[in-house]
């Protein structure tokens, strides 16, 4: 039971209709790790600058995340993102991006990180994802995320990286873009033909869809009335999803099966829904396991229906 | 057990990446009625011109739909729509609209249509919807559809019409537009404050969401790889939904309850998914009750997950 995530560690300045915050701890690896920490032991691999203090390390450490592989780049500054959301919170507007130390990131994994049972390759250059994947000692399950930038500019390397993992976790628009196929079911099948046996298509407020050889599963978004800051929702989903898959590992080391994948979709959705209830990492930091289980029950109630005796005439 | 639908009867000329068809039988009332006909007795109220032949009547009659209230306007022509879909079938492009007899439509309901137990006010002028509603003898359950045109140009009458029905069935974008509220859960609550106790938000390929006083339910879209013609999907959904609600009526005349509403969401989704598998009404015309029940089982399988013993730590 151990999960390594490689990705960005960032400071985010975010404005939404609910307020504005400066330089909150964020980044894909951070949101992922905090979400996953409720289910398993997580190691974070990513670069930070001198502006990353003990206080920031503590946010991760308090949730039991292992921070030994956070790489401090002397004289550098941490990745910075500034963005805002208008009245329609489904669309993020980027105002400023400073890659800083993330621009020259060359992941260095400790022995412990390399030997984790599960590996999540966050949204970094596909070639780096491949190198990290190759350096690991055959995790039981490896997954990756990506983005439109790499689909447009580094497609070949991305397709190679996808061929080397068990699972992709992408936005549905990215699944379509990558395959040049607007029909999601067809697009997902094409991705599976590239190698992965599991395709997860995140659909924002509409929820998420799971494609495997044995079938299709979908879970709706949680109908929140107050979304305060959508930043990190996708990473929290991935963290809940992979974290649960690793944490629910049966004593007999059973393979990741359909039933576990579906439960993981629900846990991922739950973590994503909590993440957006407050700015940055605030909500997940004060989240409790009981709240997660309650939300799982909510997701069950939201999706249940009886099949009546045949009524059609 | 009887359901009256008031709406458009049309000829549709449609081009999609899968082919092109001229002057197929269509219109909201037609797609609605055919879908509902699998569950209950349906009466169609709508205007047609001299170009509407016995052959067209037969399409409805073959499915048991009662066509007595189809109004023939001598010398007139039937509503005509020409449109096409590009590679991304989620967006309809309108090339031509000829309202013809539909432009001067003044619904005239027979005694039988007025006394139906359920009433669906298809997408017509809100003031006409109000008049039809007022002329009926208190149906057990009345629902309406609408569109952006009326939301923009006839908002006040539409809000009055909404206040006089039990249920609205709208696209999620229309729910947001009508309330000027991008958050769907809030928007749905605002609609319920206008009168209806049930709000159904159709979400296209993402499925549909149900808001009631007692909770939230969502069902995903069926993951079809071949969508040949999306025209009429929303009307087929509404027909399956209302048709099932009417048809499943308990002998004791029980109110439309949460359990029945959820099942109706699944039947609506099933009918919509069949409708888009072929051009116009072709697929629904050859549909069988067994196929519907099989698809219901598919929807169950697509949405089921176990809740595991508490794993969070």
Descriptive account of the structure:
The structure is a homodimer of 313-residue chains. In chain A, helix 1 runs parallel beside helix 9 (233-247). In chain A, strands 5-4-1-8-9-10-11-12-13 form a nine-stranded mixed beta sheet, sandwiched between helices. By secondary structure, chain A is α/β, with parallel strands linked by helices. The first copy, chain A, has twelve helices and 13 strands. The interface between A and B is large, with 55 and 55 residues.
How would you concisely characterize the structure shown here?
The structure is a homodimer of 313-residue chains. Chain A is α/β, with parallel strands linked by helices and 313 residues long.
Unreliably modeled segments of chain A: none
Q: Strand percentage of chain A, roughly?
A: 15-25%
Strand order of the largest sheet of chain A: 5-4-1-8-9-10-11-12-13
CATH class of chain A: Alpha Beta
Question: What pair of chains forms the biggest interface?
Answer: A-B, 55 and 55 residues
List the helices and strands and how they pair.
Two copies of one chain form a homodimer.
Chain A: E1 3-6, E2 10-16, E3 19-26, H1 28-36, E4 42-48, H2 54-62, E5 70-72, E6 79-85, E7 92-98, H3 111-114, E8 118-121, H4 126-135, E9 141-144, H5 148-153, H6 155-162, E10 167-171, H7 172-179, H8 184-193, E11 198-202, E12 208-212, E13 215-219, H9 233-247, H10 258-275, H11 282-285, H12 289-303
Helix pairs in contact in A: 1-9, 4-6, 7-8, 9-10, 10-12
